[in-house]
Amino acid sequence: MADAFEQAAQALDDSLRVTGKDYQVLDMISPAQCRIKFTGLFDKHHVVWEACIRTMQDYANDIKQVIGAPQVSLRQFIEIEQGEGCYRALIVLKLKEIDAAAIGRTIIMIRKYKRLHLGRHEYGETVFL
Q1: CA dihedral sign, ordered 117, 102, 71, 69
Q2: CB 32 within 8 A of CB 97
């Protein structure tokens, strides 16, 4: 299985090298949410990451609609699950909007975070939105 993940990562690296980019934008849903694809390590293996990056406010708005609450409390988080040939990450950050600089910093964070594992990682202060 690790070979399939590494082959997919190598194929994406080759494709990105042609474009001169470090990541591929899959969908720029709004200034508060985007989906990207990039490569990095997970459990010491070279893998493809499919990440959805959202602002806390955007995520909170969805939660409030679902539970019918006027306010929710949140911390920044990364939630990781294994997908088909990749790892998927939902990354919710305390930002006003998602721009190229935020995407670059998020990729660096995922690549440098040594103790990533499946599931949810919360960090930072609790924010009431």
Answers
A1: negative
A2: yes
